[in-house]
Design goal:
heterotrimer, A mainly alpha, B alpha/beta, C mainly alpha, A: mainly alpha, 3-stranded antiparallel sheet, globular, B: alpha/beta, Beta Polymerase, domain 2, 3 helices
Amino acid sequence: MWISMGPQHPMTHGLWTLKVKVDGETVVDTIPDLGYIHRGVEKICESREFTKITTYCDRLCYASANTWSHSYIYAAEDLLEVEVPERAEYIRVIAIELQRIASHLMWLGAFCPDVGNLTAFVWCLREREMMLDLLQELGGSRMHYNFPRIGGVKRDLPIGFAMRARAKLNLFLNRIQETEQLLDESTVFLVRTQGVGYAKPEEMVNYGVTGPNVRAGGVNYDVRWAHPYSVYDQLDWQVSVERPSIKGADSYDRYRVRVDEMRQSALMCLDALNKIPGGAETHYSEGDPMIITKAKERAEEGKTGFHHFEDSRGESMFYMVGGGDQRGKYPYRISIRSPMFITLPYASKCMIGYKVADIPAIMGSFDPCIGETDR
Amino acid sequence: MKIREEYAEEAAQQIVDAAVLRWQGTRLEAEVRHHKSGMARPYVYINCPRNHWRAVAKWLRFEMGVDHCSMITGIHWPDGPDDCKWEVVAHLMRMNVINPPERGGWTKQVIRDPNILQDDDVPMEFEVSISIPDTRSPSVQSVQEVWMGADWNEKETWDLVGIDFEGHENMRRVLQPHDTPVGFHPLQRQHKIRYHDFEYMYDDAQGFGRKAIDEGKIK
Amino acid sequence: MGDWFTVRTWAEEFSQMISDNSIGKTSFSDYSDTFVTVMTEGIMAVTVFGIIMATILILLWIERKFFARIMDRRGATMAIRSLWVGEGGEHVDWYDELPFGTGKPLRWLNELLNNTFGSSSEHETVDRVNDRSYHGIWFLLPGLIQNVADGMKFMTKEWMVPAKADKFIFEVAPFIIITSTVMLFAFIPLSSEIYSANPELSLLFLMAIFGIAPLGVFFAGWSSNNKYTLLGGIRSAAQLTAYEIPLLVTVLSVAVISGSLNIIEIVEFQVSSGSWNIFLLPFGAGLFLITMVAEVERIPFDMPEAEAELVEGWWTEYGGMRWGLMFASEYLRCYAACLLFSLFFLGGWEMPFGDSIINIIPNQDLILGAVGVGLIGLALGMRSEYPALLAPLPLVFMSVVPSIAWLLFKSWVMFAVFVWIRASFHRIRTDQILEFGWRWLLPLSLVNLGFAFWLRLAAWDGGEWPLFVPGLITGIAFVVFVILGIDEDTSELEGRTRPYSVYTGDVGPASPRSHEK
């Protein structure tokens, strides 16, 4: 019997269809069906200037907007051969890591009601409010910030930002402990998430899955140290890797990795605030060379640029070919690699053999976001 | 904590040398290129002739340890050189991921110190470019069996760009609706999202700048 | 107990008076007894139904407010945390405004908690986060009215039957569910004088009616012609059946220890033997709680209507008042479960320490009782700033409070426990629920039954329980609970290598292939 967990469904974290073939309560086969919010971003960007594409990239994955716009910016800087001042890199890291915390909190806030706990939903969104406040101070809005610029950032850290960020991040580190306790010490949660959705790391990598999903498999791979960019090599952080069982990484491991990643991101932000050149309390005005360098506007034909980036959900990549219309003002082609586009078919395959009731536990633990999947 | 630059350079050069050695006599080109911003990391660029693609893919996977297919995409060059009207670009990565070792019923985490990784252990980015001469139905070989991650990438490339992959099982539309007209691949250059090359339409919400010839047309 | 709220007696006298003045004066005076009976029963049925329907609003209000406080929402519903951290960085002064200085101990408690658990950094940081109060309302009604508004909303929604559904069964299923649920309340006595029907075997009737609803649920799930509802209906039928049996065995153990299958006599037994059943059968009370939560399908046993997979489970296709009535029936069943728990285990309508307080004062006269209690209040009042004159006032009310209020209060507290469970737990998967029910609860309930047998037959001597018996049992239960509740051995946790351990930094001075050792 085919059940269609169709486009309108409270579980699916986005707009896609999962057709599930069910034998009693056991899942026998799955077919994912994407493309409901395919907006044609790649085609649109062929007729936009480089600075205008940043807003599109924010909206690729709306839950994690900063990471996607930075992903684009690094690729654009590779194409246009721009050097970024160090203070701007630190500010970018702060924005990226705050966004990563907010995205993981959104994930946790959506994952817990899937397995039944409604309280953690409200708690996680409450913590996310703190992060959204900080990001609002940086970027100007709560969700789509359009924050980075080619060659730097839009504006410097606001005055008093460091003090507020430190207070909020320290409070967050305490509060996430509480939410983690609620979940980890609940036998019901362990019973629901342990032992479901096994995934072996070698298989995951062959399928193209990256990010927290593969780190839950016990393998220490993170784009931030393997192909380093920005100032991650100067910050004091550790990769979150979980020790899975023989059969592979289950949903509980993926949950643990993301919770620890939240902590690491918070620590990274605090570290960056300490190490930022020029001090965290100074404020440079817009356009100051400490935070942005002027970038050229055109990319000649024949130039290409690409950049692998550690997004909240995996490894995202932008591949840009220069030489488009208007004598190179527009890119000729932008190709976006979305981690979730590759992970969703794999996650659908992971569900075979488990019960229907396990589908939210497994799918939620892979953290799907359909905005970036469909582009 | 990061990979040391000199080790990365060495590793990239080793790969290029191995490629040149293995594929000499064909038209395959391999070189070490660098990113042009940030830390200027090296990556391996390979220009692969069309009929060798699957063999090169297998060689990369099984002998060079390239275990992750990041993206396979296609570009349409209607105004390009004659031997490169279509291009398939594959981005791959060597991640050196293995299943973590097992001990006493549990697995052990695989922790590697990035500062000391050398030679074959260094994660490396690859960019493989395949040119296809002018044709109405471009196609290359599929590498679906080599990397499972190539599966949906190839579906997307065919769906949006129109480049077919020979030997690909279960090719279907993934991003566009299933009932899209056959032969409609939007990322080809002849499909424009503006009409008559009028590029500034998006600034003109009310249509004040419309040409008279377009009276009555829907934007 | 001197309960003055004897509604049934009033109803009888009233109907007798009516009958004397109407039928008795006609030639149908042979039927006056029947008339009196019918009218009394009618009045009682309407009264009981009215009380239940009015107080179900309080139940829904408890659910919303308590749930919100646990979840730390703010605004019209305050967070529990804000009681000691303070909102907006300042201390809340609402307890200073309570009448008669009753807020003073609350302020003391608040400051104690603040000094122990709060921290100053929370004040500034949480104020904006938690400040989602709704500015701009121009009038304020109590939250009970919300549910009236919900009811009106249901009446205006679409009232449809799916095209391919089995129309007859689709429309019959809500009937079964609602009528069986409302019929429950006919047999639940709200006081020794307020009940609608009191057959000798009322417990048996009650449990029988309780078990009809699963049938209606299954009908609803099957007839909607929808794979989701079918799954939900099947799961529900399996779950409810699995938990009926431990429920019945536990209820049987209560009947055994109280010596009767009549609920009023069960409560009388608890009153006369001097100890509530929860202290005699704490294990049974726990089992009853778990099986009842499963029977009314609340989280953690929420699978049949799990939103995550099944949208709304077996009631997906219902709309409008059909769904509204079924939604009400879920809360009515919760209410029945809480009332039953209070009746069976918490002494029903007895005031806590009721007979001890009454026994302190040899004369049960109201005024002397007030004076005696007033002396206690005066002593308390002189230790704090209570106006000593008005302090005994709440205590005086305790003896004029009708016993139905005690029963309702206890059931509301039990419902708050239900809500607490709902807010804290996750949904258990269906096969895990069934395994738990059949393999764990059933044997444990049989053990409980055996214990009840032993207590009644071997350890009871016909009068009051000597104090050490319930005391000993409760003490043992408490110790067992604490032992089970303490966290596991941390060294065993490390050995399990799973929870709480992430990257431990075993980088070490090794070669690149060190992981292969």
